[in-house]
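= Protein in question =
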Amino acid sequence: MSSHKTTNSWELLPSSLDDVELIRKKCRRLAMRRAAMSAGVSALPIPGLDIATDLTFLARVIQDINVEFGLSHDQIERLQPKMRLIAYETMVGMGGLLVGRIVTREVVAHLLARSGLKMLVQHAAKIVPVAGQIASVSIGFVTFRAVANQHIDACVAVAAELVSQQNT
């Protein structure tokens, strides 16, 4: 059973900190599955495919995480003005770059460009036949999961703040 209510095909905010924790666990599993899928594609020796796949999968998983927490752009815009203000203030205060934003491949590309070392090492590793492929897959998996988990942590912080404000 879902840990939070659904109305008209969009998720509402979690109603308790227990709900936030359940959603966090669900999103961690989702991030792990998507990171594994992305890593699987990275194993293919097709130049550029891994980057395109990372961008697409990461944009999708970040948007899915936002929706699960009730923190997509559209969902936040539907909040009461006081709660919307609290959500935005919390996001700005903690630096949750992708919480409540419309997530595009370009935004994710910018985020991944900040971790450019990963891409450089990943592509350099592909030059070395077998060991390079293993390194490329491993680096891709770890980086994807780390970015997704950081986003989950940001959503948890915003959702927890909103829950605490709802209960006061």
Remarks:
- The radius of gyration is 17 Å.
- Residues 30 and 61 are 8 Å apart (CA to CA).
- Residues 13-166 form one domain.
